[in-house]
Design goal:
This protein has helices at 25-41, 59-71, 82-94, 109-138, 149-159, 164-186, 194-233, 236-242, 247-286, 290-300, 303-311, 313-329, 335-366, and strands at 5-11, 14-23, 46-50, 54-57, 75-78. With 369 residues, the protein is an alpha/beta fold.
């Protein structure tokens, strides 16, 4: 084993430095410090570093030599043996940097706008194709092997029953807020009793269905995406297809049917809890007894308002579940994709629910319901 060293020969306006010995990591710190000092003394001259006398060189020394050459354009390295050349090539291959002039130009507004429109249109077409495949699979859903009752019941528990606690809290607060804010305004005109009308109609027609659907989208819809996304990454879905099982009957339809069949019950539960919260605030804030509240509610709350809210449930449920599983099947490559698609799932589901609710409002207004 020979220590790393070098010889310096100064000639006219050039300096010849011949490296010798073994330029390896264990000797590099001391040898590079001495050579750096010598190079500083000849900073204004052309420096030629000869590597032909080297016994050994490793990647650390090669990386250091490339670094000092890049910093000083007056340095030239020559006499590289075949073995050393392979090491330099390997180092250069893994340390390539993009120059500033090669950086991509910042994309303009039109490009960004066009790309976003294209990506949204592509997503819509993919979702339409997914719905088409679902409709095709529906005609064989009720076969003996395809209709999976146990999976549907399990998904009912996970997506709806387990969500009752957060739905109840949300609905109770809705009733409290609407009653409190309505009472502050109506009490000024001596019409506090009309708070019951406000709560009964607004909660059953709009607030409970819409906000409950938003909660389910953020909870159950996101879980659908993440569950199927993990199965996609771990190749469980590919294994399922290889074994001859369709993911639509094992993963898609159980979730869609479970949520579609139970969301109206969750919304009805939210209606009841919201009205209970309203009763409590009406008693405390306005002095309206529970009996008076219920009498007024029975007199003013037509059954059609309750049915209007419940009628939206299967449509909301289908949108939330279908978007959730669709985004799950779009997961690709890494766990980061799961987070991205879960975010897309929640955002898309909430937007779809709000748009569907607005469409129902237009239809019911046109039908004077």
């Amino acid at each position: 084993m020979e220590f790393a060293g070098f010889d310096v020969l100064e000639k006219d306006k050039s300096v010849f430095i011949s490296l010798k010995g073994e330029w390896r990591t264990i000797f590099l710190a001391e040898a590079s410090a001495r050579l750096t000092g010598s190079l500083a003394a000849y900073s204004n001259k052309r420096i030629q570093i000869n590597l032909s006398s080297l016994k050994k060189i490793d990647s650390a020394a090669a990386l250091w030599l490339i670094g000092i050459k890049n910093k000083n354009p007056n340095i030239k390295i020559f006499g590289i043996s075949k073995t050393a050349r392979n090491i330099f090539r390997l180092v250069l291959l893994h340390t390539k940097t993009t120059k500033a002039k090669e950086l991509p130009r910042q994309k303009g507004f039109l490009y960004i706008f066009g790309f976003n429109v294209y990506s949204k249109a592509k997503d819509f077409i993919s979702y339409s194709s997914f719905l088409g495949a679902m409709i095709y699979s529906f005609f064989r859903l009720f076969g003996a092997r395809n209709f999976r009752v146990a999976s549907i019941v399990k998904q009912m528990e996970l997506s709806s029953v387990n969500a009752l606690a957060i739905v109840a809290l949300n609905a109770f607060l809705i009733g409290v807020v609407v009653t409190y804010q309505g009472a502050l305004q109506l009490e000024r005109f001596g019409a506090a009793i009309f708070t019951v009308d406000l709560v009964g109609i607004s909660v059953t027609r709009e607030l409970a269905p819409l906000l409950t659907a938003v909660i389910i989208a953020g909870r159950s819809g996101a879980s659908y995406t993440s569950e199927i996304g993990v199965m996609k990454i771990t190749e469980e879905i590919d294994a399922m297809k290889t074994m001859g099982f369709s993911p639509f009957y094992f993963l898609v339809w159980p979730r869609i049917l479970a949520l579609t069949l139970t969301l109206w019950l969750v919304i009805f539960f939210a209606d009841v809890v919201a009205i209970v919260g309203s009763m409590i605030i009406a008693k405390l804030q306005l002095g309206i007894s529970y009996a008076e509240f219920l009498d007024r509610l029975r007199a003013t709350l037509a059954i059609k308002h309750l049915f209007v809210g419940l009628l939206k449930a299967p449509f909301f449920a289908f949108l939330i579940a279908s978007i959730g599983v669709f985004r799950g099947f779009q997961v690709e490559g890494s766990s980061e994709s799961i987070g991205v698609m879960t975010t897309h799932s929640v955002v898309n589901s909430i937007f779809a629910v709000i748009a569907c609710d607005a469409l129902f409002s237009i239809i019911f207004s046109g039908l004077k319901i």
